[in-house]
Write a structure and sequence with these properties.
The chain has 247 residues and is α/β, with parallel strands linked by helices. It contains eight helices and twelve strands. The protein is globular. 41% of the residues are buried.
């Protein structure tokens, strides 16, 4: 039997299919995925269409933001913490590590010890340290997120701790004539600073990164500067939770 793991994210649905030990990966826009691959069964419960999968007998395990919004009759649901822990353990081959996951809606840090989850912290209340804030900032600056992530020189000071106020502050910096490069660097630094309290108490351990944000150069650069420590981005960083679902 093949196994299918799904990370139902707010922007993208990431899928990992394991068949005889081989992993394959797929990514869909979340809205497109729900429109195309979610329907109702004979008992009026939501189900994931098997036309998505290579094997109709595939076992489906799901996690992510979407697991809280709907229940699927043909999928087992596990927590994001468990999925990310299992995914990182498989990708690193280690029993002891610290994992940072920075997604579109939240950020989390998991400490593994002896092959078990030893501790974790999560920020799902404030958008200021998530991918959503970076996307909004890039939109305000009229550049794409990859270009914004490339800037680290002369970061301007962004002092607001709330994503909405920070976006207003960015508009103010544009009006003051601060360059796009300096504002972009300031955005990257501000995200790293907001993540620091979550990560700092685990900084003596080996740290790995998952999720789209931690792979962005500017955020990773400033996090490493603030921690004075290297962050090892996992090979399949966007699919870590989906991998954890097939373990």
């Amino acid at each position: 039997m093949t196994k299918t793991g799904m990370d139902l994210g707010s922007r993208f649905v990431k899928i990992c299919i394991e068949n005889e030990g081989e992993l394959s990966f797929y990514k869909y826009n979340t809205i497109d995925f729900y429109k195309k691959y979610v329907s109702r069964d004979s008992s009026n419960q939501l189900k994931i269409e098997h036309s998505l999968l290579d094997n109709v007998n595939s076992k489906i395990t799901a996690t992510g933001y979407g697991r809280n919004l709907m229940n699927f009759s043909n999928a087992e649901v596990i927590s994001e913490i468990k999925a990310h822990f299992q995914g990182a353990r498989r990708q690193t081959g280690l029993d002891d590590f610290v994992l940072i996951d920075i997604g579109g809606q939240d950020s989390k840090v998991i400490k593994a010890s002896g092959g078990f989850i030893d501790d974790f912290v999560m920020n799902d209340k404030c958008a200021a340290s998530t991918g959503r804030f970076l996307e909004n900032a890039a939109n305000i600056l009229r550049i794409n997120i990859d270009e914004m992530a490339a800037y680290t020189e002369k970061p301007c000071k962004l002092s607001s701790t709330c994503a909405i106020f920070s976006e207003s502050e960015i508009v103010g910096k544009i009006a003051e004539g601060v360059s796009t490069e300096e504002i972009s660097a300031g955005v990257n630094l501000s995200v790293a600073r907001r993540l620091l309290p979550l990560i700092k108490r685990f900084s003596r351990y080996e740290i790995y990164g998952a999720g789209g944000v931690v792979s962005l150069y500017g955020v990773k650069y400033f996090l490493q500067e603030l921690l004075d420590k290297e962050i090892n981005v996992l090979e399949n960083y966007q699919y870590n939770a989906a991998i954890g679902c097939v373990v």
